[in-house]
Amino acid sequence: MPDRIDLLATSWTSAGDAAPQRGDEVSPVPIVERIGDLVRAGWSGIGLVNADLQYAKREMGLPALREAIDQAGLRFREVEIIADWWTDGERRERADRLRDDLFEAAAELGAQRIKVMACLDESAPPRDVFVRELRELSRRAADAGVVLALEPMPFSSNVATLDEGVRLLEDVGHAAAGLTIDTWHVFRAGTPYERIPEIVPSELVAVVEINDCAAQPVGSLWADTVDNRRLPGQGDADTAEFVRWIAATGFTGPWGVEIISEELRNLPVSVGLERSARAAEESIRAGLARVTKN
Questions:
Q1: How far apart are CA 143 and CA 240, in angstroms?
Q2: Rounded CA gap, 199 and 188, in Å?
Q3: How many CB atoms lie within 10 A of CB 273?
Q4: CA distance 179 to 169
Q5: Residues 281, 257: contact at Cβ < 8 Å?
Q6: 161, 229, 226, 228: which is closest to 195 by C-alpha?
Q7: For residue range 42-89, what is the model confidence (pLDDT) as tens digits?
Q8: Of 51, 92, 159, 164, which one's alpha carbon is 20 to 30 angstroms from that of 274?
Q9: Is 142 buried (19+), middle (13-18) or exposed (0-12) by CB count in 10 A?
Q10: Alpha carbon distance 31, 284 (integer Å)
């Protein structure tokens, strides 16, 4: 059992009253204030969405943001999320601007990972196109010294499960591409946790995110994932068991904590970060203890 559990607060965990695909996605809480709250709650890392990154770039500059993160001792950094990288036309032009923004921010901030989205609507291209485009994106990531973390989501039209994510990355065949493995997505996709080490080779585990949820979705899958996630250990997804089987892959951290919920958005960020950190550490230690016993 490690003495220290390294936790990374993903972007929405520290964003306050902001949510995916709601408004401009910029957090109403100043980023330097968020960094201070993270340090006081004992976090080791920070994740940021592009909307916050571009706001910070205009208001303070990315070098100043890097200095604030460095001085705070937040060693782990990730930025998100590249979408629509397989499209063409105007949609691809927007996607390429987003991609360029995130690669620039990753370089400026010293981020280790950039999160990548699969297709959420019915516009998924033929598989060979998807593979080709992800391979090209991976080459750019390798040149930049970062790892891409593709996130299987149960409402994706082409990468809904861990199995599909692994098959895709095997076809891509590039060391700079891995997976984001998130408790909510794995649980809602119906993948038994004990299969995770069988499904996912250790070298493909790029990002791990823990959280919890009710046994059944509240509303649509989208509403459930952006409004109703729970703190680790406070739902029916058995986060500790998820941790147990993630650890069986050889993963040692940092552990991402992604809580996207109305409840968290209604709390002061400092309070939410303190509660999220304590719940996450408790679940992780419980899961690691199960590994030790077995």
A1: 36
A2: 17
A3: 26
A4: 8
A5: no
A6: 161
A7: 999 999 999 999 999 999 999 999 999 999 999 999 999 999 999 999
A8: 51
A9: middle
A10: 27
- Retrieve residue 245's tokens: 């089987």
Question: 275 Cβ partners below 8 Å, 6+ apart?
Answer: 231, 267
Angle in degrees, CA 132, 138, 139, rounded to 5: 95
Helix (H) or strand (E) run with residue 155 in it: none
Phi, psi of 47 (to 5 degrees): -120, 150
The DSSP bridge pattern shows strands 255-257 and 7-9 to be parallel
Contacts of 160 (CB under 8 A, 6+ apart): 152, 153, 154, 189
The stretches of 88-218 forming alpha helices (DSSP H) are: 89-109, 127-144, 162-172, 183-188, 196-199
Cα(211)–Cα(227) distance, integer angstroms: 13
Token pair recorded at residue 176: 């700079």
- Distance CA(25)–CA(47), nearest Å, equals 14
Three-state SS for 274?
helix
Instruction: Dump pLDDT digits (tens) for 95-154.
Output: 999 999 999 999 999 999 999 999 998 878 899 999 999 999 999 999 999 999 999 999
Would you say the C-alpha torsion 198, 199, 205, 208 has a positive or negative sign? negative
3-state helix, strand, coil in the chain (%, to 5): 50, 15, 35
Packing angle of the helix pair 31-40, 269-293 (nearest 10 deg): 40
Angstrom distance (rounded) from CA 45 to CA 13: 12
How far, in Å, CA of 173 to CA of 157, rounded? 22
How many angstroms separate the CA atoms of 258 and 12, rounded? 7
Indicate yes or no: pTM above 0.90. Answer: yes
Q: What is the gyration radius of the CA atoms in the chain, in angstroms?
A: 18
Q: Quick check: 188 and 217 in contact, CB under 8 A?
A: yes
